[in-house]
Amino acid sequence: MLNFAWAVLAGFALGTPAVPFGLSISLAPPLALIAVLLGAAGCLLAAVFAAGWLRARWLVRRSKRHPGTVGSPPVDRRNRLDGPTGRRARRLANRYGVIGFGIIGPALFGTWGSAMLGTALGLPRWRLISWLMAGVTLWCTVMLLASEALIDALGLR
After folding, report:
1. How much of the chain is helix, strand and coil, in % rounded to 5?
2. pLDDT per residue over 101-122, tens digit each?
3. Which residues have a Cβ under 8 Å from the Cβ of 80 and sit 6 or more positions away?
4. Mean pLDDT of 10-35
5. What is the pLDDT of residue 44?
6. How many CB atoms lie within 10 A of CB 17?
7. Is the pLDDT score of 76 beyond 50?
């Protein structure tokens, strides 16, 4: 039971890469997957709601400082999503929408990163959470199968 709790905590902190950790502490593969998915779900909920709250506060503060610029960034200031990661996330969200961002995002930006970036881009909250959870499930399953194949190939059991 303690190993399951450690795997949930690792899933919360690390996301998809916590699957090999769950296997390394002697959890059965299905239990390791469930534990990591529970932790990742907590991570997604915490990140999306915290980032949503911060984004709302930031928009209010920015509208007070620069009247008339609620929906667009100020002309004289650099947008914080203009860096390479922000441009990649915006391009991904524009090209594939919430579904594509949710499926591909956890592989490119990690669980925490994709939840924060999706919220910062203004994607719909519950659609973002559900599709990110689908993407995390997909990538955790891929990670589980790859880890199991590597453990069997190296003869570690």
Report:
1. 80, 0, 20
2. 999 999 999 999 999 989 888 8
3. 86
4. 91
5. 93
6. 16
7. no
